[in-house]
Amino acid sequence: MKHRMGMIAVSLLLVAAGAAQNRPRPRALGAEWQSLFNGKDLSGWKKVGKERWEVVDGAIFGQGITDQYGYLATEKSYRDFHLSLRFKCEADGNSGVYIHTAFEGDTPKIVAGRQIEIDRTLGRHVGGIYGDGKGWIAWPSPQYETVIRPYDWNDMLIAVEGNHYVVHLNGIRVLDFTYPSPGAEEGLIALQLHSGGEGKMRFKDIFVRDLSPDGP
What we know:
Layout: H1 2-22, E1 33-35, E2 45-48, E3 52-56, E4 59-63, E5 70-78, E6 81-89, E7 95-103, E8 110-118, E9 129-131, E10 136-138, E11 154-161, E12 164-169, E13 172-178, E14 187-193, E15 200-210
Antiparallel strand pairs: 1-15, 2-5, 3-4, 4-15, 5-14, 6-11, 6-15, 7-8, 7-14, 8-9, 9-10, 11-12, 12-13
């Protein structure tokens, strides 16, 4: 009987340890919001690919001019974080915010990371997660497909804490997803322009809360 009780106790400990391993990491205490865009130039960012990125009227303006993908990536890597930004789509080309990103050298080829989808065409799963070589990983429920403002500025808040992802669009939580098998867990944040020269995007008011243990 004692042996059986001991085995049960060990089993419970193993289950608890497994649950703790998969549990989202707690947010860092005292983490402050930091600006990622000064409204004047692209300090702190680097262009990846040959698409056009510039500052126009206090916003980052990205325009696809080739048949390739293009990215504007942070110089710093992030693990757990909250990201707040505003975006405006000025063409039907797809865009997105890549997280935990790594590129193959100086090329726009993604070797790690996944994107939070942006697309002004209704039904394109804005706020969903795509990437890691898997295609679509998660997308919002159908009732959230019309939350985007196709021709106006939109507010997006992305929370990444361990394997737990929450996306708010225009003040509405459109995605709350625990990712069972994420690829990279740390990397660059990158703004994306879709291939084919269709991308035409504006981004502004970009702020991040670095929740990693070694964050500010």
